[in-house]
Amino acid sequence: MDYKYIIVEKNENGVGQITLNRPEAYNALCTPLLDEVSNAIKDFDSDDSIGAVVLTGGNKVFAAGADIKELATLDFAGAYNNEFVKKEWMTLEKHTKPIIAAVAGFALGGGCEMSLLCDITICDTSAKFGQPEVKIGTMPGAGGTQRLTRAVGKAKSMQLCLTGDMIGAQEAKEYGLVAQVVEEGKVIEAAQELASKIASMSQPIVRLIKESVNNAYESTLQAGLESERKSFYTTLALDDRIEGMNAFVEKRKANFTNK
Ligand code: CO8
After folding, report:
1. Among 18, 207, 209, 242, which has the minimal tally of Cβ within 10 Å of its Cβ?
2. Any residues with Cβ below 6 Å from ligand 1, and which?
């Protein structure tokens, strides 16, 4: 498929990559760009050769938020009746394979929220995260007050959302917003390496783990533990579980078949 605002690639390691490509607007997330991301994500979901996805804005900027020029034309009725950005966001949320956000430069507003809904975020030392919506007379609308609060805690989330101030890579790491900080210019490489490692595992096992970790945010501890235990029992039914354990005993690399 031909895309205008994104570049879609996949490699022989089972990694799909989506690069936001609207450099003249700091990758601002206009609706057509989000529609393209949605389509690419759906394609990766149904592609059995893909085991993990890297979502990046390239080595200069991740995304400076929703497109403010588009937002300026929105009214309440239009946004509410047409559920502005909901379906695009839901497609990302529902994706069954791990998505790794590779952040360089600004990840602001909807850009920060997009990184937060990925499964793992890594960044380089140039990264700057923030929720500056308050400065333009609005508020986060795609997870900023919810996912950010769960990630960094109430005090830091309040500070970021109420002031619009940005934090850099090291502070983002200290607060658990990112899993890893790498040298400037190396974030895509690092994300590809991480994604390749995940894509080499058994896909149904990876999916069960992703569901189970996400469930930690949606359930009580006891309900989450019960569900995790059942998912663990489920792994015992897979050929890949037998292969993985036999490979360990026989001191060889496992050859997973995703069954
Ligand atoms: N929307 C549209 N265009 C943008 C955006 C944006 N968010 N950010 C930057 N641009 C454009 C600028 O208009 C400019 O274009 P032009 O050259 O045509 O004037 C170009 O990108 C470069 O920007 P600057 O000249 O401002 O570059 P600076 O290096 O001086 O500053 C900043 C970079 C700090 C990133 C600055 O551009 C900025 O503050 N941008 C806006 C950040 C912001 O407020 N983001 C939040 C937006 S609201 C939001 O995300 C709500 C989310 C609700 C859910 C929606 C989910 C998608």
Report:
1. 242
2. 25-26, 28-29, 64-69, 85, 106, 108-110, 132-133, 136, 141-142
